[in-house]
Write a structure and sequence with these properties.
The protein is mainly β and about 140 residues long. It is about 0% helix and about 20% strand. The N and C termini lie far apart (about 50 Å).
Length: about 140
């Protein structure tokens, strides 16, 4: 069944919305939602009740302009997050999520502030390539 699988590839499906609790009962490790039509992502959608293994989530090449968080207690266990090729104008608030890898390549991000990465203590790989709109870098 789907819920025993560790990999889910839903790329290239023209998805526009991810319902709340889409992955709440799953033990997924790899989730590929790339090449869809998602414009907004609620990080809590990736929180799983029985999740022991960290997740790798690919949301590249969507239409995402907003990454939302509603609750500090419901943080997903995501170690790798790819948001490349979306419509993000700023670095999303991902504080407290145990990310080791974050890819924000090819977004229209115009400003990066040092506090944008506060709370990402385990982050070991950050990719910010081809940010053509970047005009303001604050150290």
């Amino acid at each position: 069944t789907l819920f025993r699988s560790e990999t889910l590839d839903m790329s290239h499906n023209s998805l526009e919305v991810l319902p709340d609790e889409s992955f709440s009962s799953s033990a997924l490790v790899d989730v590929d939602l790339s090449e869809n039509r998602l414009s907004e992502i609620k990080m809590e959608v990736f929180t799983s009740r029985g999740q022991r293994k960290p997740m790798n989530v690919d949301l590249s090449n969507n239409l995402i302009s907003h990454v939302l968080r509603s609750n500090e207690q419901n943080l997903p266990n995501i170690q790798s997050l790819t948001l490349a090729g979306n419509r993000l104008h700023s670095v999303p608030d991902l504080q407290g999520i145990p990310l080791r890898f974050l890819n924000l390549d090819l977004n229209p991000i115009s400003k990066i502030k040092k506090e944008d990465f506060k709370g990402l203590k385990g982050l070991s790989h950050l990719s910010l390539s081809s940010l053509d709109h970047l005009t303001d870098r604050k150290s």
